[in-house]
């Protein structure tokens, strides 16, 4: 059975445009008019849309496909990299929000995939040619429409290079830029919006701020459906869902009133999915300690166990192996694992993601023939 994820979606869309080496993994069929537009709403989980989408008529007007599932970790950097490259995380190597840069000294430094680091060449860090590059080389007019601040960023160069970047900050500008980009006879546009994710982190899914952000999302979908060239197929999806964490009992500060940081040299990932880097020779001891402490509240893997379990896909490159934590901790329920050096920002966030609960993993897939 085909795995329904963002790598499969991007492969299917580019296969519908006839791009060599891609497969229609989701069975979406050939592009009727050679124009495909993909709108990705950061943080728009399936569960949230099922609960709140009825408040916005546009969602009922779209064709609803069987849901997709976020790659692990259910976080933006990893999932958009899979969308951009069409391969699983173990191959493209974008394994989380922050991971250790190999051979960066002791204890080493973390690369924040979304903020980047000028010392790291994004094209060397993520070597897999993107589907945008491949499609463009075959004559598809490929465009990327998103906020102006992302143009030229390390993450954009790593995961989404090869598209004509059109910076647009206002909804009207996003719609106009996308409409202009889709005029070519054979065209693909990737459109990205992160207002919902931002509202979810700050105030939580279902909050007044979040519902206001979802209203903006609905306006964007409606505007694109109305103004894109006739014959365009519009796709709408997300990169992950989000859980709300508010109870003090669900917040564990690593190393505070516990010995969990005893052998830890560097802490990466994020509160729902941690890459934990350990002192040499301490892996077995530390894995046992973490398992005993958390019990069923978290799934704890050594690196070798994570690879064997296929957490990052069936294939794991040498680069991915070197970047991966010696210990991988995945929070269950509504638990978050707080970095002792980031207690205030991590504990004050309401919305979190990265783990493997259905709330975080299940993402919707909609389409509409314009």
What is this structure, in a nutshell?
With 370 residues, the protein is an alpha/beta fold. 34% of the residues lie in helices and 21% in strands.
Which band does the percent of strand residues land in? 15-25%
- Major sheet: 7 strands, mixed
What is the CATH topology of the largest domain? Alkaline Phosphatase, subunit A
Terminal-residue CA separation: 30 Å
**Which CATH class of the largest domain is shown?**
Alpha Beta
What would your notes on this structure say?
It is a single chain. The protein is α/β, with parallel strands linked by helices and 370 residues long. The protein contains 16 helices and 19 strands. It folds into two domains: 6-87 and 128-243 and 356-369, Alkaline Phosphatase, subunit A (3-Layer(aba) Sandwich); 248-348, 2-Layer Sandwich (Gyrase A, domain 2), CATH 3.30.1360.180. The protein has helices at 6-16, 46-52, 58-61, 76-85, 89-92, 122-125, 131-137, 154-159, 171-181, 195-203, 208-227, 283-294, 303-308, 318-323, 343-348, 358-361; strands at 35-41, 63-64, 68-69, 98-100, 110-112, 141-146, 164-167, 187-193, 233-238, 243-244, 251-253, 264-267, 273-278, 298-302, 327-331, 336-338, 351-352, 362-363, 366-369. A seven-stranded mixed sheet has the order 2-19-9-1-8-6-7, with helices on both faces. It is globular, with a radius of gyration of 20 Å. The two termini are 30 Å apart.
